[in-house]
Amino acid sequence: MAGTEEEEDEATVEASLEELMAKKAERPNSSDEEDDEDAIAGGGREESRESLTTKVLPMQQNEFVCKGCYLVKHRSQLADRRRLLCRDCA
Ligand SMILES: [Zn+2]
């Protein structure tokens, strides 16, 4: 039983090696693909950073962040000044 397993493993390794060689031969630009994946991952991180900054940036004197829904609202929507709650949350 063990002997057959070893044989199967060897066969699998040889097959995967051959597949790798064939893929490399077919796609000489495999390194470019890896770069693309990195770019996509980095872009996602940048997007999350941007969404975080956009939440902080628009804070202006006539605006406030509601403590209930954490949305930036106009002061006219401020129903509770002490708790900083908008009309929807107050
Ligand atoms: Zn609110």
Summed up, the domain count is: 2
Number of helices: 2
Q: What's the arrangement of strands in the largest beta sheet?
A: 1-2
Average residue pLDDT: 74
> Which spans have pLDDT < 50 for at least 5 consecutive residues?
none
Order of helices and strands: HHEEEE
Q: Biggest β-sheet, characterized?
A: 2 strands, antiparallel
Q: Helical residue percent?
A: 55-70%
**How much strand?**
5-15%
Structural class by sheet pairing and helices = alpha+beta
Terminal Cα span: 72 Å
List of distinct ligands in this structure: zinc ion
Which term fits the overall shape?
rod-shaped
Instruction: Calculate Rg over CA atoms.
Output: 28 Å
Query: How many DSSP E strands?
Result: 4
Q: What are the SSEs and their pairings?
A:
Blueprint: H1 2-26, H2 30-56, E1 63-65, E2 72-74, E3 78-80, E4 85-86
Antiparallel strand pairs: 1-2, 3-4
Bound molecules: zinc ion.
Residues 66, 68-69, 71, 85-86, 88-89 line the site of zinc ion.
